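Illustration 12: Ig-like domain-containing protein.
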Amino acid sequence: MLKQMGRTSQTVLIILYVLITVKAFEMEVIPAVRVVARIGETLILTCNTTGCALPNFSWRTQMDYPLGGKVYNNKTYSTLTMSPVSAENYNDYLCTVICDKEKKEKSVKVELYSFPSDPVIETTASLVVGETATVICKVHAVIFEVHDVFPADHLELLLKKEEHILHSKTFEGDISTKTETKTVAYSFNLATEDNGKEITCVARLQIAGMDFEPKERSTSLKLNANFGPQNTFINASPGNLSMEGHSLKLTCVTESNPPAQVFWRKHLAKETIQHFVENNVLSIPHAHFTDSGQYICEVINPVTNKTEKASVNIVIQAPPKNTTLTVFPSSSVKEGESVIISCTATGVPTVQIILEKKIGDVITTLKTEDGKYTIDKAQLKDAGKYECTFTNKFGNHSLDVELDVKVPPQNITVLVYPSENVKEGENITIVCSTYSNPPSQMILKKVNQEREIILPVVNGTFTLYNVTKNDTGRYLLDVFNEVGNNIKVIEIAVVGKLEKPDQILPLIIAFSCVTAVAIPVVAILIYVSRKAKINGSYSLVKALRLKV
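Figure caption equivalent — predicted structure in token form:
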């Protein structure tokens, strides 16, 4: 009996344990109480149960409006899907669940808002630095009759530049049933630093106590501010000084939006630059000395119509160039004329000029002024070779010229052999010497002749053969060259005749006899004289006696 009572107690306890552990029938709606849905999207309401094996679900709206969605029932839950959400879905939705004659209900309020698109940003047609720029933000919104759906006073529009708020506006008390465009605009003076900065338009829905996404939409654009050109300069690579034959690049750097058009030219150059130009770079593959000069780049902004220029002086280093050696008025001048010898050259570094006069092995360095040497009155001694040497650290070069100083006949000497007075039959030789450049020519002619007789000259020598009395008279010796002339007068007198050879012979014989006698006598006298000197005295008588 006691055992039976114990078994009964255990059964009761087990039944009680099972009753206690079995869950009670419960239900919930997800989302609970309130949900905010955006028109055009999908919304799913879920009704869940626990503690019921075979629940029976049903959905309805307040005042039995159409559901505006599709119901799907599963074993323990049911869903109501609204896709897309429309204005008719603004309502209270009630989920009813019956489990073993037990009935439970819960509702959720569906509220709507409209945020159909991102804001739109507009700007003035052309944004130019220094001018007033206007930025407009527009947003399209659907406002409904039911104030709670989308209270207009909860729409806020913001205009921002980077993180700085330019302008904001809240729309209040605006209730309608149509799609409207809300707009805010802001004007400001555009600066260069505004280029590339981001302008953002933000539209916010700030409805208290409602959790939904998105709560805001935004649109951004970067300002394209037209400006310049400005801060223009030329960058020379490898530098302003370049060696002849090396490459050179000139880059025109400027700040401009849109990019400026670049035009190159060379100062005072008549012809167009022939070097390779690409965009803003001027390239000289093999620089020449003549490429030295001032280069100018002119930049033009096609939108702002503004122009700016920059320049750079380029110097191409090279050995002496364009060397010249000139003589003014000529390398051949007359004695007494002024002469200027000029040496010129170009080159970088600066060319040193040395002028020297060379006569044989004698070299004289002349002092010049700016490469010029002046001879006030040229003399024959100034004639000779003049050499200019041009030097810098990259090389040297020399030029020379021969200066010829022309001198008229000077220091004329005339000799007449045997004399200006001769006898008939003799020959007369007239020798003339002079100092001149170029060498002189000579003409000898007799004055007062019925016809002019010009005697021939050989190396400055004239010869009159077998003269007669007719050769007596005045002769003119004209010594001349291209520079000038000089005239000498010679008087020739011819008298008598020479003796015949048969009359002269006796005289020659007599002279020979006398000479034959005289020579021994003179020898004796010399001997006696020396003896006398040895004795310390001289006596012709004693000397003769000693001889005897």
